[in-house]
Design goal:
four-stranded antiparallel beta sheet; Znf_RING; golgi apparatus; alpha+beta; about 850 residues; about 20% strand
């Protein structure tokens, strides 16, 4: 590396922070013919027009070029013999004017020679400005020159030039700028604005005092932004002013010019200003650093984009420019001109021209990518749906970002980005997946692989599954659960799992579960069921229901009960999927599971199975749920009583034995169990009452005579059922009976009540008998005899003579049951013959 390159590298290191700021402008070195021109000559000034540009040289030549640096005129204009100080172009681009230190003024028409002119003033002319309307017909072909004073030249009658001194400048005119009717020029004192129509000065803006002297022969940079706004760059000070029209009252009262100049912004920068130009609501400043390099040479010039405030500014972007030979140049050797409508800026040094233009969407994306600002690049490429981009697409930027993330080891971020970038492009997906495969990070992209309308080659999904199988068995199981089987070849994955199980012993249960799912995907349900049962996994029920594998579970009934008895029982009973005979047969050797199933079956209480297994269920209830045994014995008739009695006797279930003994008629033994074993006098009394057997009452009384407390209890209860004298007469004299008096009173009250009820019943029966007999006698007396074979006139059934209250007899000899005549009490005539005869019996 040569010394110049080393210096550039050092400068690059110093400017690293500055280059990290996103630029607004891009730079292109002008090539083509300009390259040969500057090899033999050096640029001294430039003027740019939308049609072309004029480049003045130190050899006095003016080169007419297009914006790419190509000559547009076969012959170079040798306008001067010394350095061209300034070139001016009229608004239409028909005429150019130039000046030099020797005093020669050169005006040249590009399309006509009618107004060509060469004037020798024999004094240094530093600046010149053509009237923007110079080429228009009817104008006086004006132009302005600047040396120690500002001169206006106008063509008069007979094409003579009229000379007018506009100002005696202090220290000479350094630069001139003309826009519309206003001219601005800079001198050592400041900048003065002049109204050519009113031929009056609008004021002088004096230079601020600077702490250091400006460079020798420092050039003030003036630039009109439209017809009313003037941009001024002087040493390290920027000033923006605007021309406004005064109100009529203000002009009359104070006798002031029609226009006034108002300052808009004034601020200082830390470099010398070599050029100024507008960029929308911002400014472009070409500057040179004030300090020299460590070698005592000039540093590279900079181009700044700033946003002006009233007395301050914001530096939007700044770039160091690598112009050729910059080490030997100062701020006066650089020039800046622009095409405001195109936002293009021409930066000129003696041996180089660089064109700066606004970053378009593609330029911005390219800069962001080169500076690894990928998120911002992705955002930029999607603005306005990507319509602003010509060279870059979301896919291109996204893939560059993906490569960067993979290189940095950010695999999860890369996987997530694939979903955003690759969309539905199958080919791109497969290309990117193989990049992940090369670094063994397919797991990072697995969650984002397309699995809907667009799917990839099955091999891609199999690759992902194999990587999970080797590195993350749990993740492998999760993918097998989530991914549809159509994505990959199931048999190939099954073989991979089997091979892995032969070699590795870790996480076998997880892989066996995955294998069960794969078998079900492959239609091998018997293997899947066996695998689930081996794992004791409850998904076996879901598998059976999903694929209607009811016949396949006949040999697995006990295994399913062992896995989840409640769920299995519910499954067997639901819609009779498995016949009860099959379940009972398979569970004969496992009584507890048989109990759970038969208990649930009995609760379902279907007509087909009701009571079918009650004999078997009695033994199971006796073993596992005694509280359900007696209710079953009471509600069911579908069991062998003697077998049930034997079961209860073996286990000494006395309440159940009492019930069964009562059912088979062995009431005496049943009562003995209640009294001897259970000592339950309440139940014993109820039992005797239920069977209404005098022998049972005698047995109960005999049992109670040996126990005073039982005597008391029985005396209180027996009065309403039997004659209490039967018991009182058997009580041994002298026996102490607690609560005897109260018991006897209670007994006598109950007995009296019983006697009173019986007497009342007898009276009612006697009265009913005589009343009915009287009605029957009346019927006989009136000749109404009812034969046993006589039929009811409504239902045509034989009547029952023994109960005449059931009959209604009319004088016409027709008779009816009371129930067969609706509202018989309101009927007075026979419903058959309807004679006008009264009803006899009702």
């Amino acid at each position: 590396m040569n010394s110049s390159n080393k210096d550039d590298q050092s400068q690059d290191d110093q400017d690293a922070d500055l280059d990290e700021v996103e630029p607004r402008l891009k730079y292109v070195r002008m090539q083509n013919d300009i390259k040969n021109i500057l090899q033999n000559d050096a640029a001294s000034c430039i003027a740019v027009h939308p049609k072309f540009l004029c480049l003045g040289s130190h050899m006095g030549k003016i080169h007419l070029l297009d914006h790419q640096g190509n000559n547009i005129q076969s012959k170079t204009l040798q306008a001067h013999s010394l350095t061209v100080n300034q070139v001016s172009i009229d608004q239409n681009g028909d005429y150019i004017a130039s000046c030099c230190d020797k005093g020669k003024i050169f005006i040249y028409g590009l399309y006509t020679r009618e107004n060509n002119n060469i004037i020798n003033l024999e004094r240094q002319i530093k600046s010149i400005a053509l009237d923007p309307a110079f080429s228009k017909s009817g104008t006086s072909k004006r132009f302005i020159t600047g040396d120690d004073k500002l001169m206006l030249y106008e063509k008069t009658f007979l094409s003579r030039l009229k000379l007018t001194v506009l100002s005696e400048a202090e220290g000479g005119v350094r630069s001139v700028a003309w826009a519309g009717q206003f001219v601005a020029w800079a001198s050592d004192t400041g900048v003065r604005l002049y109204d050519l129509n009113a031929r009056c000065s609008l004021g002088l803006m004096k230079w601020p005092r600077t702490p250091e002297a400006p460079p020798e022969n420092y050039r003030c940079n003036l630039r009109w932004n439209g017809d009313r706004t003037l941009l001024i760059g002087w040493v390290d000070t920027v000033r923006i002013c605007q021309i406004r029209k005064r109100s009529h009252q203000e002009m009359v009262n104070r006798n002031l010019p029609e226009f006034a100049v108002d300052p808009i912004s004034t601020f200082q920068v830390d470099f010398y200003i070599s050029g100024i130009a507008p960029l929308e609501n911002q400014l472009v400043l070409l500057g040179c650093l004030k300090e020299l390099s460590d070698k005592g040479t000039s540093q590279r010039p900079t181009l700044h984009v700033v946003e002006p405030k009233y007395q301050d500014f914001v530096d939007v972007s700044a770039n160091f420019l690598g112009l050729r030979g910059y080490e030997a140049y100062n701020c006066n050797d650089y020039h800046l001109d622009c095409l405001p409508d195109e936002n293009r800026f021409f930066i000129v040094s003696p041996k180089d021209i660089v064109v700066a233009s606004l970053y378009d969407a593609d330029d911005r994306i390219e800069w962001l990518l080169s500076h690894k600002k990928f998120e911002q690049a992705l955002e930029a490429v999607t603005v306005n749906g990507g319509r602003d981009c010509k060279r870059h697409t979301l896919i291109y930027v996204g893939r560059v970002y993906l490569d960067h993330l993979l290189a940095c080891g950010k695999y999860d971020e890369a996987g997530k980005l694939c979903l955003k970038v690759l969309g539905r492009d199958k080919k791109l997906w497969e290309e990117e997946v193989y990049k992940f495969a090369r670094v063994h990070q397919l797991r990072s992209i697995s969650s984002y692989l397309p699995r809907g309308d667009v799917t990839l080659d099955p091999l891609v999904y199999e690759m992902v599954l194999y990587e999970y199988l080797k590195m993350d068995p749990d993740g492998f199981l999760q993918l097998v659960k989530e991914w549809p089987a159509k994505l990959y070849t199931v048999a190939a994955v099954v073989n991979g799992v089997l091979e892995h199980l032969l070699v590795h012993n870790t996480r076998q249960n997880v892989l066996l579960e995955a294998l069960a799912i794969l078998y079900s995907h492959d239609g091998k349900y018997d293997k899947a069921l066996a695998m689930y049962l081996k794992l004791r996994h409850k998904d076996v029920f879901q598998l059976i229901q999903k694929h209607q594998l009811y016949n396949a579970v006949y040999d697995m009934i006990e295994g399913l009960m062992d896995l989840d008895a409640d769920r299995a029982t519910q499954f067997f009973l639901e819609k009779d999927r498995v016949p009860s005979e099959v379940v009972v047969a398979k569970l004969q050797n496992n009584p507890r599971y048989l109990y759970l199933y038969l208990d649930a079956l009995d609760k379902r209480d279907t007509k087909d199975s009701k009571g079918k297994y009650h004999g078997l269920l009695i033994r199971l209830y006796a073993d596992y749920s005694r509280d359900k045994l007696l209710p079953l014995l009471r509600r069911s008739d579908n069991y062998p009583i003697q077998s049930a009695l034997d079961i209860c006797s073996q286990r000494q279930f006395y309440p159940e034995m009492v019930y069964l003994l009562g059912r088979i008629g062995n009431t005496s033994e049943a009562l003995g169990l209640m009294t001897r074993e259970l000592n339950d006098m309440e139940s014993a009394i109820a039992f005797c009452q239920e069977h209404d057997d005098e022998e049972l009452w005698n047995d109960l009384i005999n049992y109670s005579l040996s126990n005073p407390e039982n005597i008391t209890f029985l005396l209180q209860k027996i009065g309403t059922y039997v004659d209490p004298r039967l018991m009182v007469q058997r009580i041994a004299p002298g026996m102490e009976i607690p609560g005897l008096k109260k018991a006897l009173v209670k007994m006598m009250c109950d007995y009296n009540l019983q006697v009173s009820v019986q007497e009342g019943c007898k009276k009612i029966l006697s009265n009913d008998y005589f009343n009915l007999h009287e009605r029957l006698v009346k019927a006989h007396q009136k000749g109404l005899f009812v034969d046993d074979d006589q039929m009811c006139g409504a239902c045509h059934r034989k009547v029952i003579v023994r109960d005449p209250r059931n009959l209604v007899v009319f004088y016409c000899k027709h008779l009816f049951h009371e129930d067969c005549l609706p509202d018989f009490e309101q009927i007075e005539n026979c419903v058959i013959c309807n004679p006008q005869k009264d009803k006899v019996i009702s």
